[in-house]
Design goal:
alpha+beta, five-stranded mixed β-sheet, 7 helices, 2 domains, 30% helix, 12 strands
């Protein structure tokens, strides 16, 4: 099956069948959806374009900024197009991921209204992502934090024998949860630090506060070159997890979480590699050194702080 990337490359390298006017676009059908169709093409400026065909006029769509334009156009044969045009070729890989995500998410929309709503929802997500990461990629520290969370995600399936759906549901960090993972019986906070770190940063008064038993896991991650023996890239780890998906719903839910934290599947992440030196697991209970809303003056509404790791030996679980 031809991917969106392959279809775009095919259109971009082929001579156009006709000259294009100033505002004209050449489109080629790529895939039929339950409602509408998905097309790839090129604008008169030579920019890659994807288009979703609709049977009725779409509502106003979210704007993604100057790098990717979003517009609506009435079709000569009837119906409408929503067109996405890449204006910054340095973000080509990001544009392909955006296009693939929209195709995946909108593919099974059963009606015109459902397709409109699905498009708006996905474009809003991408709008938020571009606001967070104008370059289209995460910072190194964000990559390291995500790598640690995904290590635990995979280990929960392999070691705890939990199903993919349950772990995805428990991964609430991307959605603003107090801890990274909230299972029915336990909460887990994940921290990723360099091997030389002597402390771990707690970002809020709520992060080590829970009505359920709470575990803090600290991964020592050593950043290495992609060719280093024993290293694993962030992209590789994500593909390993995606291979565990057994349903399309699982795949979409996991992809939605990744998009929320700002991760897009681009080649850049092949070079973001780590070796796991060790994992330390602590039981956060009793006199574990922490700040929460019950232990600070009420005048303090928020705080971030660091805990020295050498003081936590007696809490090792």
């Amino acid at each position: 099956m031809t991917t969106v990337s392959e279809a775009l490359q095919d259109v971009l390298r082929q001579p156009l069948p006709r000259p294009l006017g100033k505002d004209d676009t050449f489109l080629k059908h790529h895939k039929s959806m339950k409602e509408g169709g998905f097309h790839v093409g090129v604008s008169a400026s030579g920019n890659p374009v994807v288009a979703i065909s609709l049977s009725s006029r779409p509502p106003t769509m979210p704007k993604l900024g100057s790098s990717v334009t979003v517009s609506s156009e009435k079709r000569a044969s009837g119906g409408w197009f929503v067109l996405l045009e890449l204006m910054n070729n340095q973000l080509y890989d990001v544009f392909v991921s955006l296009s693939s995500d929209i195709l995946t998410y909108c593919f099974h929309a059963p009606s015109s209204d459902d397709l409109h709503n699905a498009l708006i929802e996905r474009l809003e997500k991408w709008k938020a992502l571009f606001a967070i990461n104008p370059r289209g990629v995460l910072t190194f520290e964000a990559c390291k934090g995500l790598f640690g969370e995904l290590l635990f995600f995979k280990q929960s399936i392999v070691s705890r024998a939990l199903d993919f759906t349950a772990v995805t549901k428990a991964w609430v960090g991307p959605d603003g949860g107090r801890q990274d993972f909230q299972f029915p019986d336990i909460c887990v906070e994940i921290k990723s630090v360099s091997p030389t770190a002597d402390s771990v940063k707690i970002s809020s008064l709520d992060q080590l506060s829970s009505d359920l038993p709470l575990t803090l896991i600290v991964y020592d991650l050593d950043a290495v070159e992609s060719t280093a023996p024993g290293g694993r890239s962030l992209r590789e780890l994500i593909k390993e997890i995606q291979a565990m998906c057994s349903t399309e719903d699982d795949k979409i839910s996991f992809q939605r979480k990744l998009l929320t934290v700002g991760y897009i599947d681009v080649a850049f992440y092949d070079s973001v590699c780590f070796i796991v030196n060790r994992a330390r697991k602590y039981s956060v209970k009793g006199d574990f050194p922490r700040l929460d809303r019950s232990t600070v003056p009420r005048e303090i509404v928020e705080a971030a702080y660091s805990i020295r790791l050498t003081t936590l030996e007696r809490f090792v679980d």
